[in-house]
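Researcher: Here's the sequence for the chain we discussed earlier.
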Amino acid sequence: MADDEIVQQLTDIHQTLELIALLLAVVALSQGFFGLVAGGVAILLLVGNSIIRAL
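Model: Thanks. This is the structure I predict for it:
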């Protein structure tokens, strides 16, 4: 397996994990005050991370 294939697979795994984290954060938003805070912070971190990586 070539290095570029490994990098692509790791990138795909990372994107999948980010999507799962985003979905869990959205679910947490509906779980009361602490879920709202935790979900909101998680979404901000995920969006911020995506923006920084895109720059």
